């Protein structure tokens, strides 16, 4: 489904990703871990098409298409979803209107007719229930004045509505207390399916107690330096990142 | 000063004297004496240059470089109005074509007991003393060349009186159309509106142009707001690429009255709006909302004044602009708090999005506070579209152009939503949506 080959990217002339290789198959959950500044969020941003980053090498093939030449909105329409670390507040645009526009723009991209208001509302209500999203938030301006937990829940809710093939969760656990974390994780788990793949980017292991990955990869200095089963996350939690750093430095 | 500048001023003065020469006894009337004083002031002040502090960023050189026919006839009828796509609404609608009332196109539907409404010319024929007593009362201290010029040449416009305790059910919509299909046309409408105690009214002034020749509108509106009255007043400008517009709205509020203004400039070559509100009463509240959208080489200048003269009143102001291409915007907001006006609350905000490196916005808040127990605040922002918000929307599948439109529409929404005449608000929403989609 997703194949990242020797991906290199830089920002303002500084190379952050120095040759990433990753294969994600349908239904798999991959965790990307690593110390601060290792390039985790950069990877998430480059996959979603954030324009500040310049891709300097490699390719990313998603469902048989090279996505690196695609605009962010095209990638979204192809089925890639990025849950933001810091969801943006947009005054004056209600969550419901925002999502209706998004759903219908994606349908247009796929050559489908737009949903009418009744169909859309019915679908949205079902999805809100699925991820325990309070209906009253839908009519408010997008993320404006939302608590940290509400913002992250709104990300998961948007994911439920847009039904992506690949969800990338960028530090979704940051700024959440344990209760909020659990609710958000339950939302993500309820959306797991054999067709939908997930990349969980996180610094800490605790999110992975709730969203259990199939594979764990450690990103360090712009490269994946170690991959393993879910137990690798526990090892990192216990021992920190220093031993990995030491291993990498030893190899040179 | 160029020869041409002297030319328009001289022409206007000569024209005034020529009219006066054929007036017979009317020349000695109170009304005409006020006009003559207007001319004298205009003669003394002359057209402002950019050396004048109030005109620093707005140069009228272009405006006064040609002559205009201030008496142009127009054959405009219902067919031409269709072209203007004027929204339909059950309302009192008064048409002024090239500054003169057009009865055929107009419809007054509110019952006589609720409202006295007619053209200024008709009102003057019926009751010269009454019209003369209201005329130039609120603007008499204005030291402004264009207001003085309007006073000198005032012929027509609207005269409205709403008796005490009347709630005017239907809105009043004044439509000013410049017919510039054949020649450069000028008009100087003068509107006099007096709202009685505890009376309620919603009114709008809409300015449009037909044709590609130049039009010059120099409008003055005087609004008296008596105790406990509630007035909603909107001004919408959607004129041509060759339309020059100078307008002054002068308001005086008495105790416990409420005044809401919405000034929306959608299109026009050169626009200067002066909105001056004198809060001459206690427990009044004045609200000023503004929105402007210049593109190409358009110029929009809003000057506002909230003059607090008595204690315990509030003024609240929000102006917003989106500037494109090589357009220029100017905002100057004055707040005066006079020595007697303790416990004043005055708020002002001006926010702008500048979408092109060649567009400029000049903002100048000006607070002069002579009382010590007051709450005043002001703020201005000028920025670009929020790139992070744009990326967020695009990452959900919304195209860049659609995301831009949504963000800009949202930016305008808190001003547009203040317009309480449905047809006017819906018209604005439609035109704004089209304008945002056009680029």
UniProtKB/TrEMBL annotation, chain A:
| Xref: SMART domains | AAA
| Any coiled-coil regions, as ranges | none
Q: Which residues are in the ABC transporter domain?
A: 2-246
Q: Does the keyword Nucleotide-binding apply?
A: yes
Keyword field contains Transport: no
- MF (Gene Ontology): ATP binding
CDD domains xref list: ABC_FeS_Assembly (cd03217)
Q: Which Pfam families match?
A: ABC_tran (PF00005)
**Keywords, ordered alphabetically:** ATP-binding, Nucleotide-binding
PANTHER family, sorted: ABC TRANSPORTER I FAMILY MEMBER 6, CHLOROPLASTIC
Spell out the NCBIfam families in the cross-references. sufC
Family per similarity comment: Belongs to the ABC transporter superfamily. Ycf16 family.
Task: Name it.
Answer: Fe-S cluster assembly ATP-binding protein
Organism for this UniProt entry: Dyadobacter fermentans
């Amino acid at each position: 489904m997703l194949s990242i080959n020797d991906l290199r990217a830089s920002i303002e002339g500084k190379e952050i990703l120095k040759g990433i290789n990753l294969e994600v198959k349908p239904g798999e959950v991959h965790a990307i871990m690593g110390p601060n500044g290792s390039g985790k969020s950069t990877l998430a941003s480059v996959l979603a098409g954030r324009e500040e980053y310049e891709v300097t090498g490699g390719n990313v093939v998603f469902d048989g298409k090279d996505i690196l030449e695609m605009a962010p909105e095209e990638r979204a329409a192809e089925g890639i979803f990025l849950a933001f670390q810091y969801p943006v507040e947009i005054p004056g645009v209600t969550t419901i209107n925002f999502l209706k526009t998004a759903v219908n723009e994606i349908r247009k991209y796929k050559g489908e007719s737009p949903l009418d208001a009744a169909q859309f509302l019915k679908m949205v209500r079902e999805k809100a229930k699925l991820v325990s999203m309070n209906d009253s938030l839908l009519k408010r301006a997008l993320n404006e004045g939302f608590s940290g937990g509400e913002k992250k829940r709104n990300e998961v809710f948007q994911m439920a509505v847009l039904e992506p093939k690949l969800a990338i969760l960028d530090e979704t656990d940051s700024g959440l207390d344990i209760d909020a974390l659990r609710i958000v994780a339950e939302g993500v788990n309820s959306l797991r399916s054999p067709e939908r793949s997930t990349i969980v980017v996180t610094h800490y292991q605790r999110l992975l107690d709730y969203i259990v990955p199939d594979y764990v990869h450690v990103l360090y200095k712009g490269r994946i330096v170690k991959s393993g089963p879910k137990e690798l996350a526990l090892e990192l939690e216990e021992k920190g990142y220093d031993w990995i750093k030491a291993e990498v430095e030893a190899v040179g | 000063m160029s020869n041409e500048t002297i030319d328009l001023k001289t022409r206007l003065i000569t024209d005034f004297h020529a009219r006066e020469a054929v007036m017979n006894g009317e020349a000695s009337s109170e009304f005409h004496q006020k006009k003559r004083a207007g001319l004298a002031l205009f003669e003394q002040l002359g057209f402002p240059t950019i050396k004048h502090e109030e005109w620093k960023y707005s140069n009228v050189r272009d405006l006064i470089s040609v002559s205009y026919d201030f008496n142009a006839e127009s054959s405009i009828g219902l067919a031409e109005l269709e072209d203007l796509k004027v929204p339909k609404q059950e309302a009192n609608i008064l048409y002024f074509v090239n500054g003169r009332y057009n009865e055929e196109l107009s419809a007054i539907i509110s019952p006589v007991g609720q409202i006295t409404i007619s053209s200024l010319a008709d009102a003057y024929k019926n009751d010269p003393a009454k019209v003369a007593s209201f005329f130039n009362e609120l603007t008499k201290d204005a030291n402004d060349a264009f207001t003085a010029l309007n006073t000198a040449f005032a012929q027509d416009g609207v005269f409205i009186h709403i008796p005490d305790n009347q709630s005017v059910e239907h809105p009043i919509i004044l439509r000013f159309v410049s017919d510039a299909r054949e020649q450069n046309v000028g008009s100087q409408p003068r509107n006099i509106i007096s709202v009685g105690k505890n009376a309620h009214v919603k009114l709008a002034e809409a300015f449009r142009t037909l044709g590609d020749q130049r039009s010059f509108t120099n409008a003055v509106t005087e609004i008296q707001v008596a105790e406990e009255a509630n007035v909603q007043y909107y001004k919408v400008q959607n004129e041509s690429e060759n339309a020059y517009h100078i307008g002054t709205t002068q308001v005086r509020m008495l105790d416990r009255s409420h005044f809401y203004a919405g000034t929306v400039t959608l299109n026009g070559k050169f626009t200067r709006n002066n909105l001056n509100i004198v809060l001459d009463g206690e427990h009044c509240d004045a609200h000023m909302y503004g929105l402007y959208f210049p593109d190409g080489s358009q110029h929009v200048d809003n000057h506002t004044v909230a003059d607090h003269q008595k204690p315990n009143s509030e003024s609240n102001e929000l102006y917003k602009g989106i500037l494109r291409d090589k357009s220029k915007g100017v905002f100057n907001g004055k707040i005066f708090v006079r020595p007697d006006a303790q416990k004043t609350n005055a708020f002002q905000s001006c926010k702008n999005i500048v979408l092109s490196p060649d567009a400029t916005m000049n903002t100048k808040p000006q607070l002069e506070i002579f009382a010590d127990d007051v709450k005043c605040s002001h703020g201005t922002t000028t920025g670009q579209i929020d790139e992070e918000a744009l990326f967020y929307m695009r990452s959900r599948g919304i195209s860049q152009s659609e995301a831009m439109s949504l963000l800009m529409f949202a930016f305008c929404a808190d001003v547009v939503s203040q317009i309480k005449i449905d047809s006017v608000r819906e018209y604005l929403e439609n035109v704004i949506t089209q304008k945002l989609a056009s680029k």
